[in-house]
């Protein structure tokens, strides 16, 4: 399924100007149909899955309690 720049911006929750700048930098693959750029929606699935996985790993890391240090000596 192909999306317009506006639809892509809504799908990714990003401003249209950012999507356009990514197109100019060739970071997003597009097809130009003579009137507008069309973006293949499925190219973002892997990226979004990786971002969700990274967010989960980060949340797990921050929720892990700090272990007590074995080498701590109580010297008064």
Automatic annotation (TrEMBL):
Pfam families: HTH_17 (PF12728). GO terms for molecular function: DNA binding. Residues 2-50 form the Helix-turn-helix domain. This is Helix-turn-helix domain-containing protein. It comes from Peribacillus butanolivorans.
């Amino acid at each position: 399924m192909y999306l317009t720049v506006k639809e892509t911006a809504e799908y990714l929750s990003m401003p249209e100007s950012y999507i356009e700048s990514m197109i100019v930098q060739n970071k997003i693959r597009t097809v130009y149909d003579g009137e507008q750029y069309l973006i293949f929606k499925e190219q973002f699935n892997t990226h979004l899955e990786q971002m969700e996985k990274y967010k989960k790993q980060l949340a797990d890391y921050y929720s892990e309690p700090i272990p007590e240090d074995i080498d701590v000596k109580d010297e008064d």
